[in-house]
Amino acid sequence: MSTPPASAPPWRVLLAYVRPHRKALVAGALLSLATGATGLALPLVAQELIGDLSADRSISGALMLLSLLVVANAGIGALGGYVLQRTAESVVLTARHSLTSALLRLRISAVDAVEPGDLLARATSDTTLLRAMTTNSLIGFGTGGLTLVGTLLMMGLVDPVLLAVTVGVIAVASLVIGGIVPLINRAGKRAQESVGRMGAALERALGALRTVKASGAERRERDAVHRAAEESWRESVRAAKWQALAGNTAGLSTQVAFITVLAVGGARVSTGAIDVGALVAFLLYVFYLMSPIQQLVTAVAQYQLGSAAISRIQEVQALPGEPDRPPAPLPTPGAEPAAVTFENVRFRYSPELPYIHHGVTFAVPPRGMTAFVGPSGAGKTTVFSLIERFYDPVEGRVLLDGLDIAEWDVAALRAAIGYVEQDAPVLSGTLRDNLLFGAPDADEAAVTAVLATTRLETLVTRLPEGLDTVVGHRGTKLSGGERQRVAIARALLRRPRLLLLDEATSQLDAVNEAALRDTVAAVARETTVLVVAHRLSTVTTADRIVVMDNGRVLAVGTHTELVNGSPLYAELAATQFLATVE
Ligand SMILES: Nc1ncnc2c1ncn2[C@@H]1O[C@H](COP(=O)(O)OP(=O)(O)OP(=O)(O)O)[C@@H](O)[C@H]1O
Q1: Which atom of ligand 1 is nearest to the CA of 109?
Q2: How remote is the CA of residue 576 from the centroid of ligand 1, in Å?
Q3: Where is the signal peptide (predicted)?
Q4: Of the residues 107, 358, 372, 382, which should be mutated to test ligand 1's pocket, given the most ligand atoms within 8 Å of the CB?
Q5: pTM beyond 0.90, yes or no
């Protein structure tokens, strides 16, 4: 499906979602029309029946036809309803496919600026509104409009004067409803925004539930969620109020039309302009008008609510995303390790924020371990984010194997890299799911080897179902050290040509720390390893250390060279790292 531009009007967006299902929609619409047509024929047959009665003719034929029409009307109506609902569900599905694909392709910079809970609400709650929009508004406009025109035509055939009276009444009602419609849109948009805020507040609290509880903040967080829910309630009730008013105006207009037609029609019967049968038929049509008019009013109201949702969906589609590419093949065994170069990189996270990198330059040859050290906030993790192309430098170049990463295919670039984030996220699912996350095709032997390298074997034997044990949302059933090692194992299974390891700031116990150091040293013999180091033990074995401060590289060298050559390094080694020195 080609996504319409973000500025496209809601109806164009809806049509784009509907396009793949247009045949089913047309079938549903035709069935609805057939339902309408069988309904339309009813007053005519009734008129005939009254004629038969007054002429003392047998009414069995007309009665039979009437029954047949009633049954056909119900049967076709049910089938049409089913086809339409099914199509509407398919439209919701198409919108969800399109939106969720866009969500997972979002650039990290785009995600930085939004609340994940709100995005979640857009994918779940806002898309649901398209269901009613498809059935009620799209079909409502089509069938309601056609039925209305059909009914008016039939009325015109019965008596043009009474038709003029009816149209006059409807025109006045339309003006009133036209004034109400924008209010429905505004309330609908606000209600959905509040649902988004509710999602964001819930995600915030549930994402840090331990901290929420430890801080005794349950009630405050609950109140924030409740406030958003209540705001949504208020706006939805407001929308319902305007909808009810519009519906009532429509209902009232048919009642007024009925009374006016009765008065004017009565006068016309008494003057002999029309007969009683015509008046009865016309009055039946007036009642019959009620349904398409209500359908149209509902269509307009649902269109407003749906277009509020569509504008929220379009906001996401407008966010910068990465191209949709299949994952690139992972490096083959024995692939050459990568070389990384930063050339005078200047970078800030967004144009309104200050620069984080002020001309970072360094070169890392293939193989070996390079440690990045520096005070908190120096820009070390940012180096990794730039290598992964989560963000692009404002100036300067980042090169992998001598080629500017801007010229690399992003999927191929990332396939070459294994990245272990500082907080080592573990995803909900089993331990095996987590290990194979970055290398779904890795075989059992590779998994066993990586478990040995990362010293996870004892964990696996201890877990009740071994590798198939569910590790909980965000790996809550694992310890901090285990989570780190799982994250490293996950990265290693990709046989990366470049391993980026953002060391956790938390301290590991001595055994774990030694294990990790040995693991990283072993990996560095095979591949290029960059470590953002928070432990002296990691740094002392590094082939080179890049000292960073305030977005600049101050010095590059080995531990021994830097202890004497870099005052900042000497200070870091003497203070920050000292705790871990034996
Ligand atoms: N997504 C982001 N948006 C805006 N600013 C950010 C973002 N990520 C990091 N920063 C800012 O960039 C600066 C450098 O962050 P970075 O994570 O690179 O530091 P670091 O040297 O790795 O620190 P630490 O040792 O504490 O992990 C910090 O001041 C941080 O506040």
Answers
A1: 1
A2: 18
A3: none
A4: 382
A5: no
Classify burial at 293, counting beta carbons within 10 Å of its beta carbon; exposed 0-12, middle 13-18, buried 19 or more.
buried
The answer, yes or no, to whether any atom of ligand 1 lies below 6 A from the CB of 377, is: yes
Strands 498-502 and 357-364, sheet pairing? unpaired
Residue having the nearest C-alpha atom to atom 1 of ligand 1: 112
User: Taking Cα atoms as reference points, which of 447, 426, 422 lies closest to residue 531?
Assistant: 422
Closest approach atom of ligand 1 to CA 383:
18
C-beta 112 within 6 A of ligand 1: yes
Are 480 and 425 contacting, i.e. CB atoms less than 8 angstroms apart? no
Distance 168 CA to ligand 1 centre (A): 67
> From its phi and psi, is residue 344 left (phi > 0), alpha (psi between -120 and 50) or beta?
left
* CA–CA distance, 409 with 407 (Å, rounded to integer): 7
Ligand 1 lined by 379 (C-beta under 6 Å): yes
Q: Rounded to an integer, what distance in angstroms lies between the CA atom of residue 107 and that of residue 336? A: 29
Taking the centre of ligand 1 as the mean of its atom positions, its distance from the CA of residue 379, in whole angstroms, is 6
Determine how β-strand 395-400 pairs with β-strand 368-373.
unpaired
Domains and CATH numbers, the chain: 10-317 (1.20.1560.10), 426-495 (3.40.50.300)
- Output Rg (C-alpha) for the chain, integer angstroms: 35
